[in-house]
Design brief:
It is a single chain. By secondary structure, the chain is mainly α. The protein has helices spanning about 1-5, 35-50, 60-70, 75-80, 95-105, 110-150, 150-155, 165-180, 185-200, 210-220, 225-250, 270-285, 315, 320-335, 340-365, 375-395, 400-420, 430-445, 450-480, 525-535, 545-555, 575-585, 605-615, and strands spanning about 480-485, 495, 540-545, 560-565, 590, 620-625, 625-630. The chain has 2 domains: about 1-55 and about 115-285 and about 295-305 and about 320-480, no CATH class; about 515-630, no CATH class. Strands 4-3-5-7-6 form a 5-stranded mixed sheet, with helices on both faces. The N and C termini lie far apart (about 70 Å). Pfam families: PMT_2 (PF13231), YkcB_C (PF24878). GO terms for molecular function: pentosyltransferase activity.
């Protein structure tokens, strides 16, 4: 198979029977594989693009940064929230680079904000297929790709504009490069470079797969141990170069001519990576609360059961028990295989990815959201598909049959529990899943007759038992609108943290405009306030505390709005002196009272200082229920 894939294309004068036809695929694989793969990609695209714009701008925070990037090249480079470049979003800008490029080419709209993530999802499915195919053949590859496509949290995030979609695509691409490196070590350099770019997407979360990748190459890579370690060192250099160039660029760029790095304590991208978006996420602390506790939006209680709880369970755990069984059983059955055995290498790759990432997510004490679990989806899908394929091949023996039966039975039982958590969602489905699962598990334990029709029926029933619950939850996720900063999968639309529709307001039926009022988090502007700011010709139409409120105003008006203090109003940007200078230069027309946060770190800072200075020197008026200060 490897030799065929790497061989040059046949010459045009060769007989047609020897040419690789697009629809047929390689001649040494079953004829159904290529059509099934293409059909899967089409179905995935339909699932991810269907009624995509129902979610409006999705996460208005990132959508506003895309809008700013279409108005300013500097805002595009740094990931600024406003075209005037006061402050960036609290993540590195790689995902924004991609989405903004799409919006610049095709115009800024709800579709151009969300479509790139859907394309990334289709790409991730295709790459997972290619990766699993190289180690375990096309049938397992089809199973893995299909399982990823209908994982609920994957459907959620590939239809949403958070950075996680690009992160998953890059992680799967890096896994593909690692598998190729088991044949040609030079691919390991590309794997390192891809992970470096993933760092520029969501910082240190990209590094959670590194232990698995390194382990696989050390165990199963070609050549002696010393040479393998040298290749790993080279990959590390490629990673540092791919991630470090941008860190150096930000550090060397004069701070007074670029935006403040949102979320950092010292206007440093490296500090942001190590602090707020690094150890702060794991250990918690100032600015990283929310982890643990009873809030499902922030992960629920920490501990080994977190991935199965009310917060993460419906997002990712449908096939998680089966994946863990496949991992343990697969490693046992391959314990005497040669060092370079590809199946064991695949189990180490995806199993290491799953175990390390799941443990970190389970015990994170800082800010944790359920949609983070999308990073687990490729590993779970691959493990289940590889496990089913390899155990089915060994079904002549009782032990593989028993393990496979355990995968099916446990999945059916667990899907019953997950579906029962929402008793109103297709109440009959959980009974069907558990019934089919138990029947299939019993047949597998007893032994499957060799008759082809019987085998086909058992395999079909096994696939239904393993995937029906997850697929149903995924399809209903695609049918619901999701906005705000903490989307969740399932049949209910989610709007936590200030989502905005194409008109700038929170979508609620046909009404796309709600009143900002006191400027609560994610509040949208009234039509009167929107009209006032839209008429502004200043560099910044307004300034308001907090990024969510500022983003909502930017999307509603198309104008730049200063998000004083960043995401929670606690970043010291702009400073009071900078704000006074901008007002004196006539660059800000209005100040809006309220918004999110207020006050800097430890109860002091630019947000509270600016609020006090404006209130002491300007007269408040009311526009559409919002308190407005005219700074002109």
């Amino acid at each position: 198979m490897t030799a065929l894939l790497d061989a040059p294309a046949p010459a045009a004068d060769q007989p047609p029977a020897t040419r690789r036809r697009f629809l047929r695929g390689p001649l040494d694989q079953p004829a159904f594989v290529r059509p099934a793969f293409l059909g899967l990609l089409v179905a995935t695209a339909v699932l991810y693009f269907w009624d995509l714009t129902a979610s409006g701008y999705g996460n208005g925070f990132y959508a506003a940064a895309v809008q700013a990037g279409t108005q300013s090249w500097k805002a595009w480079l740094f990931g600024s929230l406003d075209a005037g470049n006061v402050i960036t979003v609290d993540k590195p800008p790689a995902a924004l680079w991609v989405t903004t490029a799409f919006a610049r080419l095709f115009g800024f709209s709800s579709f151009t904000v969300l479509a790139p993530q859907a394309l990334m999802g289709v790409g991730a499915v295709a790459l997972l297929y290619a990766t699993v195919k190289r180690t375990n053949g096309p049938v397992a590859a089809l199973g893995a790709a299909a399982a990823l496509a209908v994982t609920p949290v994957a459907v959620l995030m590939f239809r949403f504009n958070n950075p996680d979609a690009l992160l998953v695509l890059l992680l799967v691409a890096a896994a593909y490069c690692v598998v190729r490196a088991l044949e040609k070590p030079k691919w390991l350099l590309l794997a390192g470079a891809v992970i470096g770019f993933a760092f520029l997407t969501k910082m240190m979360q990209a590094f959670l797969v590194l232990p698995a990748f390194a382990l696989v190459f050390v165990v199963a890579g070609p050549g002696g141990l010393g040479r393998r370690l040298l290749h790993l060192l080279g990959a590390l250099g490629a990673l540092v170069a791919a991630a470090g160039w941008y860190v150096v660029l930000v550090d060397l760029w004069p701070a007074d001519s670029r935006p403040y790095i949102g979320g950092s304590t010292d206007n440093s991208l490296l500090e942001l990576a190590l602090g707020y978006n690094g150890l702060g996420r794991v250990l918690g602390g100032e600015g990283n609360g929310g982890g643990g506790g009873g809030s499902t939006g922030f992960g629920g209680e920490t501990g080994i059961g977190r991935m199965f709880g009310a917060s993460f369970g419906g997002e990712i755990s449908w096939l998680l028990p089966a994946a863990l069984i496949a991992l343990v059983g697969g490693l046992w059955f391959t314990r005497r295989a040669p060092r370079t055995d590809r199946t064991r290498a695949a189990l180490l790759l995806w199993g290491g990815w799953l175990v390390v990432t799941a443990l970190v997510f389970s015990y994170m004490g800082g800010t944790t959201h359920p949609y983070y679990a999308v990073a687990l989806a490729p590993s779970i899908a691959a493990l289940v598909a590889i496990g089913v394929r390899e155990l089915w091949r060994g079904r002549a023996a009782f032990a593989p049959r028993a393990v496979l039966a355990g995968m099916v039975a446990v999945t059916a039982a667990w899907d019953y529990v997950l579906l029962a958590r929402d008793a109103d969602f297709l109440p009959w489905l959980r009974f069907l899943v558990v019934a089919v699962g138990l029947v299939v598990a019993t047949v597998l334990v007893i032994g499957v007759p060799r008759a082809r029709k019987v085998v086909a029926v058992v395999l079909t029933a096994a696939v239904l038992a393993l995937g029906l619950g997850s697929a149903a939850w995924a399809v209903t996720t695609a049918g619901a609108a999701h906005t705000g900063s903490i989307p969740t999968s399932g049949p209910t639309s989610s709007a936590v943290g200030g989502g905005t529709g194409p008109g700038g307001g929170t979508r609620s039926g046909s009404d796309s405009t709600t009143r900002m009022g006191s400027g609560g988090p994610g509040g949208s502007a009234s039509s009167e306030l929107t009209a006032l700011l839209a008429a502004s010709d200043a560099k910044w139409a307004a300034a308001v505390s907090g990024s969510q409120t500022a983003a909502s105003l930017e999307l509603a008006t198309g104008k730049s709005v200063i998000a004083i203090g960043g995401w929670s109003g606690t970043d010291d940007a702009p400073t009071l002196a900078q704000f006074k200078a901008a007002v004196a230069a006539g660059e800000i027309d209005y100040y809006l009272s309220g918004g999110q946060g207020g006050g800097g770190r430890g109860g002091s800072g630019s947000a509270s200082e600016i609020a006090q200075w404006v209130q002491a020197n300007y007269t408040a008026t009311t526009v559409g229920g919002s308190t407005v200060y005219d700074l002109t």
